[in-house]
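Encode chain A's predicted structure.
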Amino acid sequence: MQQEPVPLLCFRKAACVSFLFTALLCLPSPASAQLEEEMDILRMIYKDQDLVTPTRSPKPVSQVAENVTVIDSDEIEKINAHTLADVLLHVTGVQVNIQGGPGSVATVQIQGSDRRHVQVMVDGISLNNLSDNFPDIGAFPAQRIERIEIIKGPASSSWGSSLGGIINVITRSPDPERRIGGLASASIGERGTGDYRLDLSGTSGSLGYYLSASGMSGDGLTPNNYYDAGNIYTKLQWEPTDKARLLLSVSYDKGSRGDGRFLDSIPPFAGSDTFEYFYLTPTFSYTFDSSLSLDVSARVFSKRNKQFFNELVSGADLQRSIANELNAGGNAKLSWRKGASNLLVGAEYDHGTLDNGAILDGSQVQEKWAIFANDTFSFREISITPGVRYDHTSTSGDFWSPSLGVTYTLLEKTIFRLYAARGFNTPPLFFTFGDNSGFSLANPDLKPEEVWSFSGGVETSAARYLWFKATYFLHYISDVISFNEATLTNVNSGRQKRQGVEAEVRTVPLWSTALMAGFSFIDARDRDTGQITQDVPRYTWDVGVDYDNEDIVRGSLRGHYIWWNAEGFLNARYNAMIWDLNLSRKILERGNTVLEAFFTAHNLFDGAQYLLGTFPNPGRWFEGGVRCRF
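Encoded structure for chain A:
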């Protein structure tokens, strides 16, 4: 384990960031016309937009009591993200471990949660595997993302099993303003890294479409870290009347990648995997009147994963495994908005089958159903949101998840939030039915992990040039699942307490320049012994500068630092902040056609920051390309 830096080092980092912001605030005031334009920009960025994730029904940010972060497509393009993992890397309170270059396997944590505690949703479908609850965020292409809404902390009263939080990906919709338009882009980088994309979108009468295709490849920026994948995605929309809408989303992704080298093993070996994902989700929405609406959707998601381990010297097969999953289900939601009330009731059902040689009988089924309800009562500046959900699973029994949130808005510029909730996480099927003889055995008596969570925070743009947000959180976790080496089973054997703070600040763009910073601190301890829990990230820093002048250049500089608090045998390194520089410039504009060149310098100062010595982060590398909107 690395020695934790002295407090002076942390103070220096904080002082540098504070100095940058103070310097900006002390600049001479711009002319009144420019100031008003800049304040308009602030209102656009931090407007009281509707969010759907907290209660699964649209409601304004000012009524959302949960700690939520929203990322839009402009921010994704600004950082030249290739996959969902790249997008999440710079989110305050979210910890991402990417095991190599673009497309590599990546894990995600929220506020120090276990990696299996984060639920990742796309178009109403969970990306998490049945076997180990792993969502493959490293293979999900960034180009189809319109917006991401992240709930930090348990979201079980709306979404079920999600002890750590929810990452809800909302994909792009048909362009309502044009019959045909789109984007084509291509980028190339070191060691054969390439990303090629084509989007088409438009609306004609009552029909709309969004079509996306892309491919990404590379020889590997670290040893045995190659990637080769392609995907297609379609969203079709039909609105026969002004009250009815039918959506159909279809996605297909296929690829292969290298998963690093394991040099300390006897014999040394290399890992690789292939994946094939397909999902389909039709959704029907009907608005009865201005106060009552209905949404009904179905979903089918199939996954096929193969994993290979080969001896480095001879290339001989050491082990291979195949996992096939098929999940089918659906949900229905009825929303009623009247006066001060915003009521939603819903139900959902899922039937999942896992075929894998490492589980009992080679195949297992998990059946789930749930009912849920929540309401938001608004009384002038105060909003109160009670919620409750009842979940049943065929493998882990039943669970009640209540929640209560309160918000108070002061002078339309400051929001105070309080939130309390009970949440859970269902054990993955490999924990309950695993039969990997010699390594792990089944434990069908496993119970869900449980959490009681409390948080409070403030979000404000009352300062002249600043937006600021701070949150305190406290999680009491029971029935923690850990591996018992004596019995070779996963067991409910512990209690944890995780508490901490998050803080974010951004400036209004002054003279085309905006600054931002985010900090999170997590104190995770065993509730019985008081001992600090290792392998839970202790603190993170995210800093950035954006410059946006379309007549000259657009640019963003992002820095990310995370203290992993890793156990020594992991051979981690994380004493450096990783900086990425992104630049773009418009080179042609003719009518609706805009041609732009872009360039990215990754890991600008060639720093080392990784959790596992087996998977070092890539050193400094470069890529560039062009994108054309039409």
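The CA atoms of residues 183 and 629 lie 4 Å apart.
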